[in-house]
Design a protein that fits this description.
By secondary structure, the protein is α/β, with parallel strands linked by helices. The protein folds into 2 domains: about 180 residues, 3-Layer(aba) Sandwich (Rossmann fold), CATH 3.40.50.360; about 30 residues. It contains 7 helices and 6 strands; from the N terminus they run βαβαβααβαβαβα. A 6-stranded parallel beta sheet has the order 2-1-3-4-5-6, with helices on both faces. The longest helix has 18 residues.
């Protein structure tokens, strides 16, 4: 069985983005009995990406939410290569994991629907989508622990469905902390980044 991941993060290939970490976590949950390959749109050629997904039984699209949809470069890639992707992996079942910086995972619903439309255009069957809230914590907290326990459980379920090539309803999750605390942590992070760049808290409220 071959599973191909396409990382749609706009960050450079060497980064430790939330999407990249999600792929690593999923690969670990899939076990060693499958062939798993991962490719990235940024920094990769179309030919190399198509080669990676060639003959895949499952195709997993993993990316961050941008303006309630796919990152523009990723949307362009899928739109321009829908026929080539279908030809490279005509039997693949499509799965997706979308993470956002909001608390609520339901903000990914529109993007999940976009992936469904991609699968329909490519004449590929759709397996399942996972919409992840609190994605900003993923680079800082081990998946499956603390505030990311829900993410670990959701990936367990998704990995099982991928291995069995089964279709299930999309699911959305929130982090295992209160919404209030999540916002407090986000505000603190913004202020720390501002200080590192020589700004003060009041500068965050400046308007053009």
């Amino acid at each position: 069985m071959k599973i191909a991941f396409i990382n749609g993060s706009p960050k450079p290939p060497s980064d430790k983005s939330a999407s990249g970490l999600i792929i690593k976590a999923l690969e670990a949950k899939l076990g060693t009995g499958v062939e798993s390959q991962s490719t990235k749109v940024v920094g990769g050629s179309t030919e190399a990406i198509l080669k990676t997904i060639e003959g895949a039984d499952a195709l997993a699209l993993v990316f961050p939410l941008y303006v309630d949809g796919l990152p523009s470069h990723f949307a362009r890639f899928l739109d321009a290569n829908v026929s080539a992707i279908a030809k490279a992996a005509p039997q693949a079942k499509v799965y997706t994991v979308i993470n956002n910086g909001y608390y609520e995972g339901c903000h990914n619903q529109a993007a999940l629907e976009m992936v469904r439309h991609f699968a329909l255009r490519a004449e590929l069957s759709y397996g399942q989508g996972l919409g992840v809230g609190g994605g900003g914590m993923i680079p800082s907290v081990p998946i499956g622990f603390g505030p990311l326990k829900n993410l670990g459980k959701a990936l367990d379920s998704l990995a099982k469905n991928i291995l069995n090539l089964t279709a299930q309803d999309d699911i959305t999750i929130e982090p295992n902390i209160s919404r209030w605390l999540y916002f407090k942590m986000a505000h603190l992070s913004f202020r720390l980044k501002a200080f590192k760049n020589g700004l003060k808290s009041r500068d965050l409220y400046l308007k053009p």
